[in-house]
Design a protein that fits this description.
single chain; Glutaredoxin; Glutathione S-transferase Yfyf (Class Pi), Chain A, domain 2; 49% helix
Length: 215
């Protein structure tokens, strides 16, 4: 295992919205301590200039390890954490399937984040896109349906991304077993994981819509 000690985790100060929550969920589940650093937008450029020489991607979310290494961007970071902490697939075929799902979730996050900049598109999103993303995930979770997670009984890094996207898109409260049995089963199992239950319960039930002015 790469030195996952004295971790510093950086993302914008958006509560649980945006792309920052999947890694928090995974680290809590793995019982890995980390410093959760929320960056205000006004401080982003200075921070970016500070890290860009050592971390050319210069994008969030980002983990800095105790030995000074940087690992970032949502899916690559989650894949790295999964490999280091035992949340990866056991064979190449399943690993590819997990990566596919993570790619789909990245699209879902992007659609949600677009509303930060175009809040007038919320109704269009709810009417046209939310159902597409949920239906896609219901299908993916039906592939290995002997267990509640994407690969059945084995939880992987993509499961944390899926739950975070569902939470951000306010799907959890309206999820019905008769409509999406695979996702319903997944959420029930995920929210009752030993190291996640207390953390999830502590999260706000209703966060204000993020609006980022476009200059």
């Amino acid at each position: 295992m790469t030195g996952l000690t004295n971790l510093k985790y950086y993302y914008f100060d958006l509560g649980t919205q945006g792309r920052g929550e999947p890694a928090r969920l995974l680290l809590h589940d793995a019982d890995v301590s980390f410093e959760d650093i929320r960056i205000e937008f006004k401080d982003w450029l200075a921070f970016k200039n500070e890290i860009i020489e050592d971390y050319p991607a210069a994008a969030l979310p980002l983990v800095k390890t105790g030995d000074g290494e940087y690992y970032g961007l949502t899916a690559p970071l989650m894949r790295f954490l999964g490999q280091q902490l035992g949340y990866d697939a056991v064979d190449k075929k399943k690993s590819h399937f997990v990566d596919q799902t993570a790619d789909f979730v990245s699209d879902w996050f992007q659609d949600c984040i677009r509303i930060f900049f175009q809040p007038d598109q919320q109704e269009v999103h709810d009417k046209n896109l939310k159902g597409i993303h949920c239906g896609r995930m219901e299908r993916m979770y039906g592939r290995y349906n002997e267990g509640p997670y994407l690969l059945g009984e084995q939880i992987t890094y993509a499961d944390f991304m899926v739950y975070a996207a569902m939470r951000q898109d306010k799907v959890l409260g309206s999820l019905l077993e008769k409509d999406m049995p695979n996702l319903f089963k997944f959420v029930q199992a995920f929210e009752n994981r030993k190291n996640l239950k207390e953390y999830i319960t502590s999260l706000p039930t209703d966060e204000p819509q993020i609006v980022i002015p476009v200059e």
